[in-house]
Design brief:
By secondary structure, the chain is of the alpha+beta class. It has a domain of 134 residues: Mago nashi (Mago nashi protein), CATH 3.30.1560. The protein contains 3 helices and 7 strands; from the N terminus they run αββββαββαβ. Helices cover 25% and strands 24% of the residues. Helix 2 runs antiparallel to helix 3.
Length: 193
């Protein structure tokens, strides 16, 4: 019975090969310990908001002007969502990320603060995707990956049960619009200028 013998020999060889190519489990722990994100407005109706969370899974959200949810809120981020977030940052290569040298007169900016190991990194990132997918450089790919993570993080308040609170401190600052009073016409005052 050469057919049975060939089959058994092939099965044994396949079994040994499968065992020898066992892939080790990838370390899924991330170095990220805290993430803070804020958006600043634009000349239109870009939302002013901030999200702050860390490995304790305490989730802080501030919604300001043009945000769907307004005020200060806290909640509990799930471990699964934290793991998803850290994987997304790993894919975006956050440890080697360089702020783009693009500036905009009108457009939303992200303020991002990442804490990992003994490092705190602060970035100001314009919300501009590189559109030409055919000729994207490695830097453009990294920028698009980072913006994808920030867009995802910006919408997490819709998936976290929130409880309104009075206030809390935030490490970011661009979520608060500048309130500049209109110029005063000093010619109408006694003595003018």
């Amino acid at each position: 019975m050469p057919t049975t013998k060939s089959f058994l020999s092939g099965a044994v060889i396949a079994l040994f090969m499968a065992c020898s190519f066992e892939t080790p489990l990838k370390d899924t722990t991330s170095d990220l310990t805290r993430v803070s994100l804020a958006t600043g407005g634009c000349y239109g109706q870009c939302p002013f908001l901030a999200v702050d969370l860390d490995t304790s899974l305490l989730y802080k959200f501030y919604g300001g002007d043009y945000s769907e949810v307004q005020g200060y809120h806290v909640g509990r981020f799930s471990q699964e969502s934290w793991d998803t977030l850290t994987r997304k940052f790993d894919i975006a290569l956050y440890k080697t990320y360089q702020e783009p040298s693009i500036t905009m007169e009108d457009g939303m900016y992200f303020e991002l603060i990442l804490e990992y190991c003994d490092t705190i990194e602060r970035f100001h990132i314009p919300a501009i995707y590189s559109l030409s997918a055919d000729s994207l450089s490695e830097v453009d790919h990294q920028q698009n990956n980072m913006l994808t993570v920030l867009d995802w993080l910006m919408g997490t308040y819709k998936r976290v049960p929130l409880i309104r609170t009075d206030s809390f401190s935030l490490r970011t600052s661009i979520q608060f619009p500048l309130r500049i009073p209109p110029p005063v016409d000093l010619s109408m005052t006694r003595g003018g200028l």
